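Appendix C reproduces, verbatim, an entry submitted by the partner laboratory led by Prof. M.T., so that reviewers can inspect both the input and the predicted structure.
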Amino acid sequence: MTNKPVHSVHNFTEGLKEDPKGASLQYRTWTFTAIQRGDCLVEAGATFTLIEDGSTVWSCQISSGDHGDEWDGHFDITNGAGELVIRTGTYHFDISDKDTKHQWDDSRGPNSDFASHFAEASTNNFYCSC
């Protein structure tokens, strides 16, 4: 993977959502413009959501102009001073079919480390390879 982010989003939306037990949780969602790497494309409108319990949701439409491509990426979230506060694990998607849009939804459960940095999460930097 590259050492420079492929795309950074500085603005996020905030809101409340209900967890399975009915409790209200804050969330922050970063919305990305189109992300192109080689033959691979993540469509504009892709979202990464961080929930105050440390859960995350990555959702996008993805395609490739080639057969058998795979997309690997991770997110580095920084605070207002530009300091890294959250680094996700790798997200992986096997695109397989040429010129076919796929919906990629990857939800990950609560993470206490992410939760402890929720309030300071500011900029979301996406690093990836295709």
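The chain has one domain: 7-129. Additional entries are available on request from the coordinating office.
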